[in-house]
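Researcher: Next sequence.
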Amino acid sequence: MLAFNVKTTEPVPVEERLRRHVDTSRFPSGHAFLKDLQGWREKMRSQRFGTNGAEAVRDGQLRYYALATHAEHHFRTVDLKNEAKVVFRWYDTFSTRRFVDQPDWAFERASVLFNVAGALSYLATSQERGERGDPEQIKLACRYFQEASGVINELRKIASNASWLSFTPDMTDDFLEALSCIMLAQAQDCFYEIWRSLLTLILTRALAPAPGAKDAGLKLKAPLLQEAISSEWLAVVDWNRALFDGVQNYYAQRALFDGVQNYYAATARRT
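Model: Next structure:
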């Protein structure tokens, strides 16, 4: 199963730069809000899975995302680039030397959502699965993967038609769509693991198309992504696609064979 890391960002003195743009007559708690915004941005910026844990990272990113959404509304008339001199710099999660600078709250929020999805993917892969896996943990992994896919789709809505969408490989629409497909395909894998002892459901799972693995493989063939993304990621996605193809073919043949046997048995009984 695949999980992905958080994007990193540089410090931004949002409290200092936006303080003079607070209209206390309309926003009495504006200065306290900016202090909270600055504090949570610093906390969000320093969070890592290894030191804080994926759950704390998810919660911290979501808390800052809510504050950034409010900031976008409260300071919607402020020209971040020319008036406030506020520019957000975020690095690509795979090609960590690549970065994008944007004076845009939407870019800030989209990048934070990317990290929320990353934390959810990490939580999902941390659950005990496999032969001795706890069914409840497998269900939890399934839920986390589904949530990660949903968060990525929400990110894509924010980023729709944005000029910065293709500046780093991890924020291209092709990659985001592939990532959403991968998370959803992995959720389907978890469902398969829960019900694998029931032949009927296995047949249903195997004979159904596996758009997640196939679609992700196609999207990741874009030259920019082939160059930037870890070869291990590409190999796992391709292996999953081949696995699903093999399982589908096996059970399709099994179902066909059983159907032929039943037909001849019924014919023999009638004669």
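Model: The chain has a mean pLDDT of 82. The CA atoms of residues 113 and 149 lie 11 Å apart.
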